[in-house]
Amino acid sequence: PVLVESLLVFAVVLAVHGVVWDRFSWCALALALQAFYVQFKWDRLLQLGGAVFQFRGAANSGLLPSSMVIPLLGIVMKERCRAAGIVYFERFGIVVASTGMLLALFLSVLAVGITKPVPTNTCILTGIAGSVIIYTMKHSLAVSEVIEVLEVLLIFVYLSMILLYLLPRCFTPGEALLVLGGVSFVLNQLIKRSLNVIEGRGDPIDFFLLVVVVGVVLLGLFFTVLFTFMDSGTWISSMFFHMMTAVLGLGVIMPWLYRLIQRNPLFWLLQFLFQTQTRLYLLLYWSLLAASACGVVFYQNAKRSSGSKKHQASTITRKYFHFIVVATYVPGLIYDRQLLYVAAVLCLAVFIFLEYVRYFRIKPFGQTLRHLLSLFLDERDSGPLILTHIYLLLGMSLPVWLFPRSCAPKGTLSGAGALVPYSGVLAVGVGDTIASVFGSTMGEIKWPGTKKTFEGTMTAIFAQIIAVALILIFDSNVNLNSSYAWILASVSLVSLLEAYTTQIDNLLLPLYLQIMFMA
């Protein structure tokens, strides 16, 4: 399975660079080749318990598929913005690609350094890849951009040491690279923009995303440190939690956002949410869907408490939430993408806050949330945090947040690029859901070395093609310009990757589909 997963990732890399070939292509190929070899060192360290931190079990390291995501995103973003003539975001894409390569190289060097005996051939390969990447960065980046890349690397190192120690068994090395690398980049961007505020420059919804993500992460770090010295399950601790959340929110996060958008954040948010009648209808519709999702949770727990011997929700039951998320995102993508952008940020903040309440057993809802959500755990929730629902939200939202609006004429890209915001809907909402439901109920022919079935994968590909046809019918902004063969190849590669990867597919698959569509 690891070899097939690696082959699929190499296929994506070659497909992207078959379309986009420049000096960074050599870097990406060198990075992929050395990540393939180092991945086996990480897998051996995980099996022998020789890794520095405790990583998630029942999965390989995932170094190769995760190492290529950020560099490829930066490369395709650079090409899209270069074609549109937007120099600022073209340079931004170069910084993103360079940062992703350096973070992946750091993880590789770490694995090689702690492997005993030292793997000579892998060391040489990693050294060659590092030399190619550093040489290309030297001739591509300005001094300020090099400093920015090094800042992100420094934040990533410290954030990794803190969070991987505090949250054992929550991530594989590859997932840690994606999640912590993304948070590090967001934190660095927020600091950079806060120090260089220019009135009227920048979209408020982008600042909103940056401040909310950094705010909830800092909130979690603060309470993690605090509750190592006191019991979090008492009423006094719970009152202190709520009080400090309000203080940090109103005293730090709100003024920070005010400095960036130059207006009252609460008034701006209320005005934004209720600006048009369409937004009111969408908010009402989403509220009904949220209530239905809560109803599913309560109903399944009621079945468990009524004497059912089944202690875990089935795969089909968990996929109810995927259907609800698809029903949530599709109208937002068609009618108001900016509202969907902001609503997804708010939903992410709520999800993470509720996870803090559950994890720290904050009264009065902490213990109740532990009981309600335990029914929906699977083997990927082996650590102290329950992250699968947050990964689902991220997988659906990242294509919307990372969509290069400034480099898209009239708010949309041409060809397959027009489907970029729908990457999460197609890969996770449709493909992954249909593959799981049909594979678990009707699948008989298993892919070699996995539990996934041939029938599930083929049905997923077919369902995504039907979904693309429906998007063409209902979304007038989508114009594929005869790029159907590329769309079919992209969907097929990502569906096969879903069958073979042991990483969090909710997070990985939409990003790879977005990369293919943007290329």
From TrEMBL:
GO terms for biological process: dolichyl monophosphate biosynthetic process. GO terms for molecular function: dolichol kinase activity. It is a multi-pass membrane protein. InterPro entries: Polypren_kinase. The chain crosses the membrane at residues 7-37, 57-76, 88-112, 118-137, 149-167, 207-227, 239-258, 278-299, 320-335, 341-361, 382-402, 422-442, 454-474, 486-513. GO terms for cellular component: endoplasmic reticulum membrane. Its main location: endoplasmic reticulum. It comes from the Eukaryota. The keyword Endoplasmic reticulum applies. Its EC number is 2.7.1.108. It is found in: Endoplasmic reticulum membrane. The keyword Transcription regulation does not apply. Keywords: Endoplasmic reticulum, Kinase, Membrane, Transferase, Transmembrane, Transmembrane helix. Belongs to the polyprenol kinase family. This is dolichol kinase. The lineage of its organism: Eukaryota, Metazoa, Chordata, Craniata, Vertebrata.
